[in-house]
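Lecture 7 notes. Example A: sequence first, then its structure tokens.
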Amino acid sequence: MFFLRKADKLDADILFEWVNDPEVRKASFRQEKIDFAEHFEWFKNIINDEKYNLFIFMNDNIPVGQIRLFSDNERIIINYSIAKEFRGKGLASLMINQAENWLREKMDTASFMLVARVKFDNIASQKTFMSLDYTPEMRKDYIEYEKQL
């Protein structure tokens, strides 16, 4: 069974492993490898920041990905990755859908815009957001996908 759980301090290592995966670095706007000290400082800050919600996407007791939701006033910025051994199985769509459901419950009746920024060469993420009815808008260096919830 797939589900989201809030990340905790024990997730720092697996998130560090995932963030430095070559495919994740390639899809990121910042492509250089992240060192552990920098990662750990970022992790300490984000895990305690009320503007962020960081989840680990689980398949029973196996972590398969992560999704971050950053609240920027009326917009929520989505950032996610799937562990390399689980890519190509449609899990990103399932994970984002579960995050949307969590947001609907948390935000009550408030309306908000979900936003994701995807590089031009990240075809898999483009297909994922299109399959979830996000609207693409071309920017200079990326495609911005939006969905009103």
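Example B, a different protein, same format:
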Amino acid sequence: MWAEVREKAATWLEAMSPRARRAVSLMLVAIVAIAATSVFYLRPWIEQRPAAATSLTGTSGVQPSYFFNYDFKSPALGWAVEIEAKQGSRPDVGRYWIFRTVDGGRHWQRQFRGQSQTAWMTLNTLHFVDLRTGFFLAGDPMSLYRTRDGGDHWTSLALPPNAEMAQFADPARGWAATGSDLYSTSDGGGTWSAPKKLPTDTMGSMPTFRDGSEGWVGGGGTDVQPHVYATRNDGVSWRRLDLPRSTDASPDEPAGTFVQLLPGHGVMVYVFQQGPGTAYTYTTFDGGKSWTVLAVPPTPGGNLGPLAFEDATHWWMVFALELFKTADAGQTWTQVDAYVPGEVRQLQILDARHAWGLTGDGLAFTSDGGTSWTRVKPPTEK
């Protein structure tokens, strides 16, 4: 099911016009991950580091590549998952390692390791909801792993039948989903509720919940009218909310949507179309009664790069070697006079001054709002 979601998103991207494709290429990667795994306010992000001198020919000695995902809670404290993927093998099969740093990445301690038949899911689901409680998915069949002591010990817990995705809002409350059913837990994954039905056209997306009642999920793929679904009763029932259609939207091409919750309040919705292709982004701060189009920063070609959030209205965006900020939820943008060490492809913001960035060769950290950055090496099992 989730491979189909990634395939469908890739098909949409290919069908778009060059300008629309440029506008969403970076954003789509993050949103597909959101659609197929967990959704959190400070979303972890992924790094790929190919092995040195990898051979693409020959039949002996398969050389692996390594992928990383990180989740930081402070300038000093953070976790990483490293995945080994070997050429010629199934891309979702591989070994994994969990690491922790307590000194800002100067040193990494290995806490856990294993083999996953769903390494892509393991890579995307590592997340700590507080300084001690974290979760990720791994294994075959898929299991939920939980720690309550900062990663020193992990417990394997059963997921609901056929569930392949899960997210947690805090140490107790969480949700798991199949393609059509939604489950909830109030004891950190120890027990799960009876299934509730999801809307039929959610494209296999994982609903995202702000608390124990309010949830959102994208819809579409067959309907030209972009829309999302919202619940106020923990998924017992869902209400369809239609979004405005862009003036340059194709009148005949189906529209699909992906939802991201903003910190505290507010919702962001990404809209994609096939055919000639349009891609645009809306926000709402009144539960979907009104929608506002996101303004594009003054980037070359008017492109939108990866977004990260301090709070509901203060956002950062990186594009190539440039950093932009908004204080009004994306209606106006200011370019920051900053030295960015290489291309920072993703950001995780801790507060107005402190943020972690993912570069092409590791990590970078800023303590002055992005004006200057310090490089940090990733962990390694080798």
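Note on Example B: Residues 1 and 135 are 22 Å apart (CA to CA). The chain has three helices and 29 strands.
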